[in-house]
What does this fold into?
Amino acid sequence: MNLTSTQRLFAALIAIAALGAQITQTVLDLGEGMGLFESLWRQARYFTVLMVVTTGVTFALMVMRRAHAPVGWMSAVTTWIVMVGIVYHALLAADHNPTGINAVINEIQHTAVPIATLVFWVAFAPKAGLTFMQPLVWVICPLGYSIYAMVRGLFDGRFPYFFLNPETTGWFGVFAYMVGLGALFYVAGALLVLGAKRAAR
It folds into this structure.
């Protein structure tokens, strides 16, 4: 399905915000003396960054192709990036106080892009054919990331989030958080499916 001019403009703004935030962060890192690979490798530690880039690339491709992304993929991306915002504000924001340009980047990543993506999905994204089984597949992404983040942390001693750090939370605690977050990701995806089905009536 082709994008209308309004949809294409909205998609372009989301792509610019998402990718622009990450490019700006990289430039800031380079200005602090990091190498390019070091900056990108550091950023790739975080689920937020990976999902913001995924969202930005998805919308950029839509703009270039003048067409919507596949229904399942667009709904999965929406679930992931919305959960980025929810988890950040519920579990992490209280202990995270960036300033200056870093505060702006932070708000784009955790608030503006998730909200804009959800608005786009609700207002414009095709939704036909979504089922309640699909969110089970979408959960593979955050669970796979959790495993990657923990394995990486065990090698270099740096864990991106307290709930994935077995040294402070314990392995049982990490497992409990993974199960809980996996369930929340499924519920978030299922709510999108439910909304799509109700809208189709």
About this structure: The longest helix spans residues 166-200.
